[in-house]
């Protein structure tokens, strides 16, 4: 949740994914027509041999990308023409739009995936060109007035006559049995068209096009700056200052005494990269205060250009909201489909958590200060750069030792058999490894599995697993969708996804790796098990503030004693190693200064809301003074703490990437805690995981979906002057952190 070592991985992933295609979401979430890439080898809609890259028929050479992109565009143009010619045709229009989206999406998603993971630069380059070629076409579709009017006409006619057409025996004559999902998708598509201003007149329409393009450009530039080491600075430590305080360190030995290999020597200074990972690593692990201070200062410096870019992005977003009739971008962003529905619900949720933990934060602060004084050569003031280090170093050794055992429990190669055994026990599913065609893979070590019902052998879908680090590969861990499920003539289009990680060792998974893989597996199964009529709402393609729920529910398997014992039995490790004291250590670590860590996350979520509120109209918005006032208002408990929040928006990329949605992870944590706790702290039943949580994909309205999962009483309702909203109860989550009784 926060840009800290322990939890950064998933957010980086999300950011990576969203930053490439932020504005083409729906149309790039746009099925192959079988003649192009009908490539499945799992059953229902099997066409062709699937012998190309990621199972796409015919994609066997980098040059084939160009051909595939052109064929995709041609097929879509044919369908666009058919929609325009036919005029509004109720749900059939919506179905065709979904089909266009599916055809396009399969090629763009596969190309985007290829350019992030293929070991051969030629493939990456060709996939990149295919993305560019189709990106321009996507923009054309997103602003296509003829498609928009056909969609609006189709929605109007269905609203006027919502019955399903039936024959004299009462059987539906159309292929559509339930129009509800079609209408839901139609409304979402309409909203997405309108994001491009397609419904506006003349000048306003031009202004909207300009704003959308500008936000995209500035966002891309901002992200590039934020990871450009020439702009993010370096951590520089003066050797004399270290020698003055640390007796017994010779000048030659200094670099070796500091986090191995991080620093290089330049004259009388030690220099390290100012990238976030290095800075945060030093903040957690370095016992030398001067090093932590230098890392902190570098981390809180920022590329100067980003100050201007953030202002540009936020003002343009605000203007978009105004044009669309909202008083803030957050209100526009959350309106309609999200669980919260209004910034007021998010604000109540975040402030409610903050109020519940603020006293514990103060107490924890005193303990941290005392710890630092005990550990330091001289008693000094507790400074912002002492926090991560004190939190990490003050974990009792006994817990740290127990915890260390978890880092060498499972071999990387044992994860799949372990997960398969767990899925069988929990859900009656199994993972079957199948052969890869030599031209289907993109790097050594890729494994292809089918997710199957153990009893019936029904195959739900395919997951490619590509877990190990290699040069040139996408960083972090993520789930890439390659083909969404949807109802097609003759059966169901089998979903296909790729789970990518960057595990550095071929030998053992660290506990963090295991937790990450469980989290991403939750996303993968959500995609594979979902059975929606249309691809638009398949798997993880629902509203941002509910799609993280299944992955957070799955993440908890990694620290569940019963689950790990099941995994251990099938993977060859000794289940007797999984003793109670090991899980006590896990729990202790989770609770260790939990309020301090959680408050930081809450503050960043509040900051994200604030940046997308109507406060942007104030002339001091975004200045350091303005940020100081804002952070002070939201739970800072110590005067020195103001130093901690120097310009976070200028380096903390999620604040730009999430655009008012950063709270979604806290929502998911709370709902996941509720799902487990409502089953007495044991893993949820098959009915809950498969049917209620995953099988529906994103096809239910957010509130209905969450109420079905945890019950109506577990949502707090908020009534505002214009809109009402919802947020999850947070006490079960606080309880898991030891912050509530
Ligand atoms: Zn996730």
If you had to describe this structure to a student in words, what would you say it looks like?
- This protein has 32 helices and twelve strands.
- The protein is an alpha+beta fold.
- The longest helix has 33 residues, at 343-375.
- It is globular and about 90 Å long.
- Mean pLDDT is 84; it is low at 1-48.
- Bound molecules: zinc ion.
- Proportion of residues in helical segments: 40-55%
Assembly state of the chains shown: single chain
Sheet with the most strands? Answer: 5 strands, mixed
Radius of gyration: 26 Å
Main-sheet strand order equals 4-5-6-10-7
Which percent range describes the beta-strand content? 5-15%
pLDDT < 50 stretches: 1-48
Short description:
With 741 residues, the protein is α+β, with helices and mostly antiparallel strands.
Keywords summarizing the entry:
single chain, 741 residues, alpha+beta, five-stranded mixed beta sheet, three-stranded antiparallel beta sheet, 12 strands, 9% strand, binds zinc ion
Q: Topology of this protein?
A:
Elements lengths: L7 H13 L4 H4 L5 H4 L26 H23 L4 H27 L3 H22 L2 H16 L18 H16 L7 H25 L2 H4 L1 E5 H7 L8 H4 L6 E3 L2 E5 L2 H10 L3 H11 L4 H20 L5 H6 L8 H33 L11 H7 L3 H10 L8 H13 L1 E6 L12 E7 L5 E10 L9 E6 L2 E3 L2 E3 L2 E8 L7 H19 L14 H4 L1 H7 L5 H11 L8 H12 L2 H18 L12 H10 L20 H4 L6 H14 L8 H9 L7 H9 L4 E5 L4 E5 L2 H6 L5
Parallel strand pairs: 6-10
Antiparallel strand pairs: 1-3, 2-3, 4-5, 5-6, 7-10, 8-9, 11-12
Helix pairs in contact: 4-5, 4-6, 5-6, 5-7, 5-8, 7-8, 9-15, 13-14, 13-18, 17-26, 19-25, 20-24, 21-23, 23-29
The structure holds zinc ion.
The site of zinc ion has 5 residues, from helix 21.
